[in-house]
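Hi L.,

As promised, Polyamine ABC transporter permease:
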Amino acid sequence: MNIYRVGWLAKLLALITMGFLMLPLAAVIPVSFTGKRYLSMPEGDWSLRHYIALFNSSEWIGSIMNSAIVAISAALLATLLSTAFVIAVWYRNNQWTRWLIGLCMLPLIVPPVVSAMVLYFMTTNVSHIAPSLGYDSLPGVILAHTLLIVPFGVINMLVAISRVDRRIELAARNLGAGLWQTTWMVLLPNLRLSMLTTFLLCFILSWEEIAVTLFITSWEVITLPRQIWSGLRDNVDPVVAAISTLLIILTLTLLFLRMAIQGWRAGQQHP
């Protein structure tokens, strides 16, 4: 007898909660097919005019490209920094490492508006020294996003490295491997899947970041969240519903792809 079996009431509550959370997302899809110039449900005829406007708009395509560049770059930097920090902490493992971890977690307790203001003053001051790294520049946005998402990457990597058996390091050292050989040939192969999940987590956090981006950009760098915010704030452009629908489809596709890969791997391990 399985004492952990979920009852029908718990399943029903889970379905109701899921429906409550997903219903607003489902409402976005028909709105994107409206033939009117403002957000509304389609009345009779369904139109693709807003999808056509999306792909023909240099502003929307440019914002998507900017978001992709910023998110990929920031996620790569955050993953590398998080991995290096966690490996150093794992090797040293003394009383000072706790203080270092706490110092790294400080951005998580700071309100987003405060972080945005601090990064605004930082980028404006950097602009006087290196304009290409300062306010309203693509490298400046990448740097700001990296500073924001590194703590999340550190948390994910700390959980991953805590599962690594220290005896494999001792075994590698006993066999004559140096520090770099142990790191590259023993430790990192055990962390590569966690590094991938850290990259994906940081990518998502950077992709949807809006508060800081509003503070540190003006007209030169327009990311997708900022473009959506402008579309809703200025004229309630229905193209926002179109891009939201495409993002929902992309998210569901990646989710089902991940489930399919996990099922395939399970089948390979237990034929």
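The chain is about 75% helix and 0% strand.

Thanks again for sending the construct details.

K.
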